[in-house]
Design goal:
3 domains, 11 helices
């Protein structure tokens, strides 16, 4: 019986995470065969700004994982989280095809296709994920699965997660140049949610905040489906920069102060200054998050609470600040499908682990149901990059 093994790339502004993972049985958790974390170069806010610098670091990380696992790293799932990611919801309606009026799988496919944004709307974007949030037949009730229900018309509310095409192409191009074929692109917020949210949280309504170096990924889940996603161009590095300016010290020293609270001097004035700098930057970021929740009608209304992840989530006092700013219960996330105490329980690995779990979920599907569109799309994109 073939092993259920996946490879993952999570290329952030601060670090490149590469891992090879396995699920030994349908009921078992995730088993890490090899993992590597190297400092990033050539990436800013999750987007490529120097392909050759990134390529060199990426190859180094891949080679390290191959040495650990003993398995060639030739294809992978890519976790992709940048401010280029957005979402929109669309409602669509079709007439049910069968003479009996019974909704079939073909009707569901048709209504999803009907909801798809026009080619004009997608001229600079690519759809990463499509979710049928709910369906109704003849405007009555809402169903997660309408197949088998009788009526005349099928309606659907559909969520599309998209990315600007240019940064996606650029990232894919570097990965392919490193000799890796991409199996699928996983939006960063969706990957973090797969790793950290429990089934109960996803059903009740919960928010994942993955706070990285240059970006903050956000995913809201409700009724076991994504409700919205967003990526903001602010992260832990902005706090580091403010500390460096405020105390007139190097960036390395500012990072140490941020994470370990070791101030240049322990006077009350220095402590007050540090607190003011950190709180001012966090207020800016959490105002954006709170405004997003207000816009989608979920401000203060997520019983499953907020789950924090990402390197900056280890900032002292962030849980309490988040509770105050968002008026919701807050916890630091852990991956329940990974052994407790495993070194990859570090919050910086949340998106990579989530992408691995999504990949393992897909690999366990029958061959006819595995997504294959990405291999075709990526080949077309790469051809378009060649002069």
């Amino acid at each position: 019986m073939p092993r259920n093994i996946v490879h993952v790339l999570d290329i952030g502004s601060h670090g490149i995470k590469v891992l090879t993972a396995e699920r030994k049985s349908p009921d078992s958790g995730i088993h890490i065969l090899g993992a590597s974390l190297v400092p990033s170069q050539g990436v800013r806010r999750g987007m490529v700004n120097s392909p050759q610098l990134l390529l060199k670091r990426l190859k180094s990380a891949i080679e390290e994982v191959e040495r650990f696992s003993g398995i060639p790293f030739k294809h992978a799932f890519l976790a992709f989280g940048t401010p280029a990611i957005s979402f929109n919801k669309v409602r669509a309606r079709i007439a049910i095809a069968q003479a009996s009026g019974e909704v079939g799988h073909y009707d569901v496919e048709r209504v999803l296709a009907q909801a798809k944004p026009s080619s004009k709307d997608l001229s600079n974007k690519e759809i990463l994920d499509t979710y049928g949030l709910n369906y109704s037949v003849d405007s009555e009730l809402a169903f997660r699965d309408p197949v088998g229900i009788r009526g005349e018309n099928l309606e659907a509310e559909v969520l599309f997660i998209t990315s600007m095409l240019k940064p996606l192409k650029e990232m894919i191009s570097v990965v392919e140049e490193a000799g890796v074929i991409i199996d699928d692109v996983i939006p960063g917020p969706i990957a973090a949610a797969r790793s950290l949210l429990t089934q109960r949280q996803k059903e009740a309504g919960a928010l994942v905040l993955d706070i990285g170096s240059d970006t903050t990924d956000l995913a809201v889940f409700e009724e076991n489906m994504p409700y919205s996603v967003a990526v903001f161009p602010y992260g832990g590095s902005h706090i580091t920069n403010d500390i460096a300016l405020g105390f007139q010290i190097s960036l390395d020293k500012a990072e140490e102060i941020k994470m370990e609270m070791k101030l240049p001097d322990e006077t009350a004035q220095a402590k007050k200054k540090f607190q003011h700098i950190v709180e001012a930057r966090l207020e800016d970021t959490f105002e954006l998050i709170d405004n997003h929740l207000k816009k989608i009608g979920r401000q203060g209304l997520l019983p499953g609470g907020v789950v924090l992840s990402g390197g900056a989530s280890k900032l002292t006092g962030l849980e309490e600040f988040s509770k105050y700013a968002l008026r919701l219960p807050v916890t630091l996330g852990t991956c329940e499908e990974l052994a407790s105490g495993h070194r990859l329980q570090d919050p910086v690995w949340s998106s990579a682990l989530g992408a691995a779990l999504i990949g393992l979920d897909q690999e366990s599907l029958p061959e006819s149901k595995k997504p294959s569109e990405w291999r075709q799309k990526i080949s077309a994109w790469l051809r378009s990059l060649i002069p």
